[in-house]
């Protein structure tokens, strides 16, 4: 059925436009009967088309999928149109907690509190309500404490390809994920 | 002169301690504990209308600092002939401070990422309502269908028989009278368990127990229980 389409990039553009959210390669292949390699090639072609002059959109790889979004330079005009968008209002406390969860996941509440030196119950609730953090089962330790980790939406909200894409600090002192405080 | 920073502006005790260390340009690996403890406590003292819930975490670190200072003051035990490498009591604190600082920096990196991300606009975001995983539930549904369905629901609601539920009210005073009568009938001595049948309502049992407590309080009965969770023997006083 694919042969009737003149252009694979155009087909994928249509899918991505409708989806809005990032589409994984599997989702794209399932919808098009394309082999992953062919789909990837077509996506690359589409991406380079967008990179050219005269386009307001771009193709980004985010949260394990491909997503159409506007180019950054047009943000001020879009804000004129839609009004200033609601600021991503995460408090300093929420950001610190989110950073600990993102880099040390899966992590228990106790481990987070140990690092921050304060209780994190309400902050944790906020992060869950915003859909940035979720429960990831329980730790095989006394009391079977709940483990927390970040969601796919977290990757989307922060424009990360995947969890390995988190920014690193090059001081040879990155968070050691193997050693959790008991 | 020194400037006042509201304590509530700090994210926690480590945040405050980091602020003091950075302000005094102190080497984090060689913290003058006495000086830093004094400054830390000054901040706590300046805290007006201290909320104990919020303050407890700050106080905990103050205790830790004083404990470290005390350990530093104690003479190290000298093993004869052996030079023991005594662990620096500040070590654990330094480790935790460094870890906290690391995550504080990472959190600013995350904030920058979020700011950049705000420049990219996408279509409709992640609204799952745009997806029809179950086909199109509203296809071929007209406004008349909706009105019809609504009428049917209203009709059903009218036809449903209503059953008035009466609230059970048992007063402790009533139960006390009941207990008196039961004691009378049983010769001033009875078992708590015998006051109930299998079908006794939970509320009955609870109120009876409260009545029993009240009678004990008034000194009218005595109660004995041999084992935890065992049956309770009730005796009328003066018998």
> What multimeric state do the chains show?
heterodimer
**What's the overall geometry of chain A?**
globular
Mean pLDDT of chain B: 80
SS elements, strand count of chain B: 3
Instruction: Report how far apart the termini of chain A are.
Output: 57 Å
Report the order of strands and helices of chain A: HHHEEHHEHHEEH
How much of the polypeptide of chain B forms β-strand, as a percent range? 5-15%
SSE-based structural type of chain A: alpha+beta
Mean pLDDT of chain A: 86
Q: Specify the biggest β-sheet of chain A.
A: 3 strands, antiparallel
Which percent range fits the helix content of chain A? Answer: 40-55%
Q: Tell me roughly what share of residues is in helical segments of chain B.
A: 40-55%
Q: In the CATH hierarchy, what is the superfamily of the largest domain in chain A?
A: Winged helix-like DNA-binding domain superfamily/Winged helix DNA-binding domain
Portion in beta strands of chain A:
5-15%
Give your account of this protein's structure.
The complex is a heterodimer of chains A (182) and B (239). With 182 residues, chain A is of the alpha+beta class. Chain A folds into 2 domains: 2-82, Arc Repressor Mutant, subunit A; 92-165, Arc Repressor Mutant, subunit A, CATH 1.10.10. In chain A, 44% of the residues lie in helices and 14% in strands. Chain A contains 8 helices and 5 strands; from the N terminus they run H-H-H-E-E-H-H-E-H-H-E-E-H. Chain A has helices spanning 8-19, 25-32, 36-51, 75-82, 92-104, 109-116, 121-129, 152-157, and strands spanning 57-62, 65-70, 107-108, 133-138, 146-150. Chain A is globular. Chain A starts with 7 loop residues before the first helix and ends in a 25-residue tail after the last helix. With 239 residues, chain B is mainly alpha-helical. Among the domains of chain B are: 7-74 and 87-115, no CATH class; 172-236, Arc Repressor Mutant, subunit A (Orthogonal Bundle). Chain B has helices at residues 13-23, 33-45, 52-73, 91-117, 143-159, 172-185, 202-218, and strands spanning 189-191, 221-225, 232-236. Chain B has a 3-stranded antiparallel β-sheet. In chain B, helix 1 packs across helix 4 (91-117) and helix 2 runs antiparallel to helix 3 (52-73). The radius of gyration of chain B is 36 Å and the shape is flat.
């Amino acid at each position: 059925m694919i042969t009737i389409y003149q252009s694979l990039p155009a087909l994928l553009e249509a899918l991505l436009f409708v989806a809005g959210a990032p589409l994984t390669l599997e989702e794209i292949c399932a919808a098009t009967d394309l082999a992953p390699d062919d789909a990837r090639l077509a996506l690359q072609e589409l991406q380079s088309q967008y990179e050219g002059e005269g386009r307001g959109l771009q193709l980004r790889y985010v949260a394990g999928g491909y997503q159409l979004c506007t180019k950054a330079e047009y943000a001020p005009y879009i804000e004129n149109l839609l009004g200033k968008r609601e600021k991503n209002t995460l408090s300093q406390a929420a950001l610190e907690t989110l950073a600990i969860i993102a880099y040390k996941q899966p992590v228990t509440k106790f481990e987070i509190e140990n690092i921050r030196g304060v209780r994190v119950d309400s902050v944790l609730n906020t992060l869950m309500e915003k859909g940035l953090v979720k429960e990831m089962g329980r730790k095989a330790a006394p009391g079977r404490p709940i483990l927390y980790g970040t969601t796919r939406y977290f990757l989307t909200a922060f424009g990360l390809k995947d969890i390995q894409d988190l920014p690193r600090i090059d001081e040879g002192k990155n968070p050691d994920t193997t050693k959790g405080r008991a | 002169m020194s400037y006042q920073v509201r304590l509530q502006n700090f994210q926690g005790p480590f945040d405050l301690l980091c602020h003091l260390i950075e302000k005094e340009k102190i080497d984090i690996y060689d913290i003058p504990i006495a000086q830093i403890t004094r400054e830390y406590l000054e901040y706590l003292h300046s805290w007006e209308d201290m909320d104990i819930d919020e303050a407890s975490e700050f106080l905990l670190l103050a205790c830790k600092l004083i404990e470290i200072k005390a350990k530093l003051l104690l003479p190290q035990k000298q093993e004869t002939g052996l030079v023991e490498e005594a662990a620096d009591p500040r070590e654990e604190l330094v480790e935790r401070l460094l870890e906290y600082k690391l995550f504080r920096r990472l959190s600013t990196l995350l904030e920058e990422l979020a700011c950049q991300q705000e420049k990219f606009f996408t279509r409709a975001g992640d609204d799952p309502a745009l997806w029809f995983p179950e086909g199109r539930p509203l296809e071929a549904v007209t406004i008349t269908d909706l009105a019809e369905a609504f009428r049917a629901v209203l009709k059903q609601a009218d036809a449903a028989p209503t059953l008035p539920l009466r609230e059970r009210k048992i007063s402790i005073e009533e139960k006390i009278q009941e207990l008196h009568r039961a004691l009378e009938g049983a010769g001033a001595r009875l078992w708590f368990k015998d006051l109930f049948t299998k079908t006794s309502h939970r509320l009955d049992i609870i109120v009876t127990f409260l009545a029993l407590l009240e009678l004990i309080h008034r000194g009218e009965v005595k109660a004995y229980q041999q084992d935890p969770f065992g049956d309770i023997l009730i005796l009328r006083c003066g018998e």
